[in-house]
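testing teh design pipeline on a random one, pls ignore if ur not involved
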């Protein structure tokens, strides 16, 4: 890999109580689309990761009628140190949930839908995969032209569960590694770094023409060199798209504290490194989240794969 510049970063105290730098401040901008989407989600008894994970881009995206729907309930069976989604014992899998999601996508007139979900270790991965697959199919039935990106859990690494999701025909298959290997066990105790890479590699093996995607969160204790190493691991797994953003601690007491504020210049350096590694698209910036500019990412990956496979 070519050498890349690793610029300065601004460290903070581990408590996460230090003031955010200017480049991380966002303005509250609500409007009619934001209110309409919020009412629709409530009326259909749905969940969005935008709300559950306290996304800093929620006002911008919802006003633009872009949302990431959270399926499989609102309670996650795993506890990651950075995540604001509630951990608990979820209810049974809801077989009617995919149809409600498709109804919301139709009402909103979406052209590109992003679907993510909580981890459900209480249920067989094959049953969980079927909910993912049926959500894709339900959207296809209602809005055939709508593109669908799925951001799944690791499905316990079960090959047939991954195949069930891929065979349903998503336009993008995503699974987030989130943090480099050294920190993975402590920050994501329910996950395994190698298993996440294997899930991404398997998806690409099942359908080489399918764009695959992952995410890295910066500011949780990793070094710049480890971010680049993680990018290389993802590229080795065949990943086409990657997003990199700044960690913002959801709370001062119950979550991992911010270890450093990564500068916009350093995020640019990550982007350059990813482009040198051969990713079709690298979305890298302080406020970037996994589904940010998802449609543009899909178009870039589709063009690249079309060149490869015709």
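output:
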């Amino acid at each position: 890999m070519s050498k890349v510049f690793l610029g300065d970063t601004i460290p903070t105290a581990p408590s996460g109580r230090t003031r955010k730098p200017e480049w991380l401040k966002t303005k509250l901008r609500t409007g009619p689309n934001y209110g309409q989407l919020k009412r629709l989600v409530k009326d259909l008894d749905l969940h969005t990761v935008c709300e559950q994970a306290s996304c800093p881009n929620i006002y911008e995206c919802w006003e633009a009628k872009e949302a990431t729907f959270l399926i499989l309930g609102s309670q996650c069976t795993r506890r990651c140190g950075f995540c604001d989604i509630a951990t608990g014992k979820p209810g049974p899998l809801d077989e009617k949930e995919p149809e409600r999601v498709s109804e919301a996508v139709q009402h909103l007139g979406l052209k590109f839908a992003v679907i993510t979900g909580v981890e459900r270790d209480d249920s067989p991965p094959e049953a969980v995969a079927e909910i993912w697959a049926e959500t894709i199919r339900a959207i296809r039935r209602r809005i055939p032209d709508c593109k669908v990106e799925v951001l799944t859990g690791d499905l316990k690494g079960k090959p047939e569960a991954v195949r069930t999701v891929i065979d349903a025909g998503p336009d993008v298959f995503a699974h987030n590694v989130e943090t480099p290997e050294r920190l993975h066990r402590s920050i994501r105790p329910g996950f395994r770094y190698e298993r996440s890479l294997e899930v991404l590699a398997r998806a690409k093996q099942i359908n080489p023409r399918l764009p695959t995607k992952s995410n890295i969160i910066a500011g949780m204790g990793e070094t710049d060199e480890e971010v680049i190493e993680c990018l290389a691991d993802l590229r080795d797994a065949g990943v086409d798209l990657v997003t990199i953003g700044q960690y913002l601690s959801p709370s001062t007491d119950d979550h991992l504290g911010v270890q450093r504020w990564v500068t916009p210049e350093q995020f640019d350096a990550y982007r350059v490194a990813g482009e040198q590694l051969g990713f079709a698209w690298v979305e890298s910036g302080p406020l970037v989240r996994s589904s940010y500019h998802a449609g543009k990412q899909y178009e870039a990956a589709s063009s690249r794969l079309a060149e490869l496979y015709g």
